[in-house]
Design a protein that fits this description.
Blueprint: E1 2-3, E2 10-15, E3 26-28, E4 44-46, E5 57-61, E6 64-65, H1 68-77, H2 86-102, H3 109-113, H4 116-121, E7 145-146, E8 149-150
Amino acid sequence: MQYSKGSWNIQNLVLVPAHFLVPSAVEPRKPLSATARRHGWVGSNILLDRLPQDARIFLVKNSVEMPKTEVREAFNRFSFLKDKNLGAKGWINDVLACVRELKQPEFSLQDVYAFTERLQQHIGVPPSISSPRRFRESHWHADISCNNKPL
């Protein structure tokens, strides 16, 4: 969310559907200290630059509320991800982010192979770009909070 400091008017408000939140886009924060009320709790930061542009759905853009039909259409466009396991979601998100970076309506497999090194840097990515990522869903969990309160 972005707002104007003087008037507190919302300038931009972005929704990120849960089915786009994958391990490569979430960074754990430092655990709370031993003296904290909830010591040991680990929050997370969402790395928006690691999400494909399609994951960012504007509810308000440049201080203008987006039409509800546009918002719903954008949300539903990738709703098929809800039914995928975490590894498949991650792989689809990572590859989609790379493809969108090409900024071309048509591209070759060779164009995508240019991102091999970046894709291999993500946890659990196999050496071959053609293999799906494998994550054991039980080994990954992110607490997302706002003002230290779970959402």
